[in-house]
Amino acid sequence: MLDFLDFILIKKKKRNNIFGLTGTLGSQTAQDLLHDIYNLDFVFIPPASQRMLIQLSPRLEINDIDWMKSILSTCLREAKSGREVLIICKTIKVVQDIHKELKAIYDGKKIYTLKDDIEAEQNFEELEPGSIIIATNLAGRGTDIPISPKVLENGGMHVCLTFLPINIRVQEQAFGRAGRKGQPGTWQLVHNVFKGYPEDIINKNMNVIKECTSFGSKYVRSAFDKENKNKNEILKKLNEMLDEAKKKKSEIFIENLDWKRENDENEMLNNAKLEIEKVIKKDELFIKYTKFLKDNFPNRKTRVFNDIEEQWGFFFK
Questions:
Q1: Does 20 map to a domain?
Q2: 65 shares its domain with 187
Q3: Is residue 51's pLDDT more than 70?
Q4: What does the pLDDT read at residue 88?
Q5: In this structure, are 64 and 183 located in the same domain?
Q6: 12 and 80 share a domain?
Q7: What CA–CA distance (Å, rounded) separates 294 from 296?
Q8: Does 92 share its domain with 173?
Q9: Domain presence at residue 15
Q10: Which of 151, 171, 192 is the last residue of a domain?
Q11: Over 70: is that where the pLDDT of 227 sits?
Q12: Would 293 be classed as within a structural domain?
């Protein structure tokens, strides 16, 4: 299957037609941009087999230590159950950090790393159950990882995404490593919400939890006061507040993360549209300029026009 950018350009008479296939078309904003620039139409073709990929509840942590613990605990849980695990990271440094932590607590012979797209070109043979691959996003999405029959019996591949992608297309490409061709599989986001998340919302929800659990809280002190006849009611109320705060925290985090990503992507694509419009105008000027030169200086050598094109290239830059 062709990637989104691997278009086939076919020239028919005086028209250019662009055909492309992708499993991750992206957001509506991205589609609108492509339609505006290339006048493209989009056709959605249903898959040949039912998708068996299951999303697990995201793990949203508030510091790097808890974030790393969640990555290790969730991935080891799946690996020890006889599955294959793919951990997708934002940078090479994160790959190295997770690799170091895993080697200290797991069989190093079952741990593999992919740090760039060159390494990803290697063909993996079927790995034994319990194998863990740590990869950057670029390497992870460009690698075809065969799943052994034994791993499929144990639930297939599990993908752990350790960061929130810049757009939904990147996320779909990452999770698309599992559950391919109707195979079973799971995916899960483990994200440090302090990175790219509004701090005031985090503090608001964490303060509610603190009020329900800290012995410095007047509510907690009242619940454990022997003189207080209503302590059971207060304790019950605290538990209800705590459950609601934890539930609300998770919901708010997910909704705001998706909202923030959507807004960031819209801003990025709008900037890209402006840049593309500038390039198109410069290209139109260049065509007029070279036509003027060739019409008015027909005896000039080809080398002169090549020099002009080269200088125009610096202008584009």
A1: yes
A2: yes
A3: yes
A4: 94
A5: yes
A6: no
A7: 6
A8: yes
A9: yes
A10: 192
A11: no
A12: no
Q: Which of 123, 135, 153 is nearest to 89 (CA)?
A: 135
From CA 160, how far away is CA 175, in angstroms rounded? 8
Q: Which two tokens stand for residue 107?
A: 């069989």
| Lowest mean pLDDT, pick from 86-95, 164-173, 272-281 | 164-173
* 94-63-132 Cα angle (round to 5): 35
Cα–Cα dist 65/215, whole Å = 24
Same domain, 218 and 252: yes
The answer to whether residues 148 and 78 belong to one domain is yes
The span from the CA of 32 to the CA of 266, in Å, is: 11
State the pLDDT at residue 192.
Answer: 84
Q: What is the pLDDT of residues 212-225, one digit of tens each?
A: 555 556 656 665 66
Residue 304 covered by a domain: no
Q: What is the pLDDT of residue 49?
A: 76
- Top pLDDT among 162 and 50 is at 162
Q: Which domain holds residue 207?
A: 199-264
Is residue 12 over pLDDT 50? no
DSSP string across 83-129: -EEEEEESSHHHHHHHHHHHHTTS-GGGEEEE-SHHHHTSPPPPPPT
- The alpha carbon of 136 is separated from its chain's Cα centroid by a whole number of angstroms, namely 11
CB 132 within 8 A of CB 75: yes
Nearest CA-CA partner of 199 in 256, 263, 242, 251: 256
The number of folded domains in the chain is: 3
Distance from C-alpha of 242 to C-alpha of 314, rounded to nearest angstrom: 61
**Residues 139, 172 share a domain:** yes
Q: Are residues 95 and 5 in the same domain?
A: no
Q: Give Cβ neighbours of residue 172 (< 8 Å, ≥ 6 apart).
A: 23, 24
In the structure encoding, which two tokens stand for residue 56, read together? Answer: 């697990």
Residue 106 has pLDDT above 60, yes or no: yes
CATH of the domain at 170: 3.40.50.300
What is the token pair recorded at 189? 């986001």
Residue 15 is predicted with a pLDDT of 58
What is the C-alpha separation between 310 and 56, in angstroms, rounded?
53
* Higher-pLDDT residue of 32, 316: 32
Among the three residues 219, 244, 264, which one is the final residue of a domain in this structure?
A: 264
**What integer pLDDT is reported at residue 78 of this predicted model?**
96
pLDDT of residue 305: 63
